[in-house]
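User:
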Amino acid sequence: QVQLVESGGGLVQPGGSLRLSCSVSGLPSDYSRYYSIGWFRQAPGKEREGISCISTSDDSTFYGDSVKGRFTISRDHAKNTVYLQMNSLTSEDTAVYYCATHQSPRAWYLCEGYESDYWGPGTQVTVSS
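Assistant: Predicted structure:
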């Protein structure tokens, strides 16, 4: 069965950093060889936001405007793991962070919220002094 498991969330002070991980396993054998995977977040009372996605085809990336220049997405193909390095965190970054996949290799398509296939349960990130 498909499993996406996020880790690395927690409490961090403003200006600090965190690195999230998303481990993927159990994708169906007929799932696209090249797919996209990325990070979303949802804060209380706000809509879910696609913040960063990456294509397993060519490692092309997409970043939402709110995180450009502060967050970096990367992946370890051998470990089937995607990372999100988050720097210069502010209280506005407080949210539950989810990873998700889509069988299209277009990172922007996933992040813009058009379609998705599988989701993790999420990990809480709280930025507070």
